[in-house]
Amino acid sequence: MVVLQNLSLSAVVTSHGNGNGVFGSWRRKKHFNLTTKTHIITHSLLLWKLQTTFLNPNPNPNLSTRKYNNNNRVEAGWLFKGVGGGDGLDATSERSENANEDILVFFFQLDLATRVQYALNVEQYDIAQQLRNKLTEVETEVIRQQEAKRGSSSKSEVQDKALSIIRLRADLQNAVESENYALAAKLRDQISKLEAESLAAAAKSLAHDNAQYSFRLGQKVRHKVFGYKGVICGMDPVCCESSSWMETAQVEKLPRGSNQPFYQVLVDVHEDPNLLVAYVAEDNLLTPEPPNKGQFDHPYISFLFYGMDAAGDFIPIKQLREKYNRPRHEIPLEPDDEGNDDA
């Protein structure tokens, strides 16, 4: 595993001297005061090594020779405290490092693809090949994670567990016939555990196959409890966070619990500067009434969306729609507009 220590997030994403690619445009935007902390890195942040090692045709030697430590990682956090909510919760209870990392890896994919094309344009073919190889590795890993997350592998998992249960039942029958009751009891427990796991895997696969979402990518929303404005930038048919995260966010107290759509939500920095990305249950989101066509500020907006549409929502880039297999959203024409078109 590879990690970054004592680097600010803004330093990492603007480490390219020529400013090409997705991350290079960060420094041309508003500066947000980010602090860094150190924690154990997850395997997805292995990709950050590529950011400093391969992406710059003329890398900064201070960055390329920086030492890495296997026990730490970068975490971005705002300097301010969150707003309070009921039942002892505040908005930070729904802050999600996993969702934030998921978005950053998506940025990284886009940046790699851009830099491959840039290297080809300037005829740096060796560098282009290195980048293309890394892009293939990243895409393969992302697809694997998406399949696991969305339950694409659950069907085969159910089949494997079913075969194991059949074999264990045969062993159980033999144990009973030979009056080996201690072994029979052990086998019975194993069968019960496998049946529960098989049922959970089947439910997960079914939920992903038949997911129905009330909100769409780029839609502006308001949090029902904490009141902040947000924009949808990702979605899961069920909660994909850890049990400890769900306990902190008190997911079990929601009307539909964890078995409902959860959304990656960008939070307006002016409303709650303590949040970067929240992971919010559908139960806790509202559509603003009337539609909000006002300004929305967040450092990720320009990477994920083309801009705002006529209704005030954001238009997701093609790659984001493809990531979540979502169709384009067409704004219905007003009667006056139809009349003008006919004219």
UniProtKB/TrEMBL annotation:
This is Hemimethylated DNA-binding domain-containing protein. GO terms for molecular function: DNA binding. The lineage of its organism: Eukaryota, Viridiplantae, Streptophyta, Embryophyta, Tracheophyta. It comes from Cannabis sativa (Hemp). SUPFAM superfamilies: YccV-like. InterPro entries: Clp_protease_adapter_ClpF (IPR053189), Hemimethylated_DNA-bd_dom (IPR011722), Hemimethylated_DNA-bd_sf (IPR036623), UVR_dom (IPR001943). It holds the Pfam family UVR. Gene3D superfamilies: Hemimethylated DNA-binding domain. It comes from the Eukaryota. Signal peptide: none annotated. Residues 212-316 form the Hemimethylated DNA-binding domain.
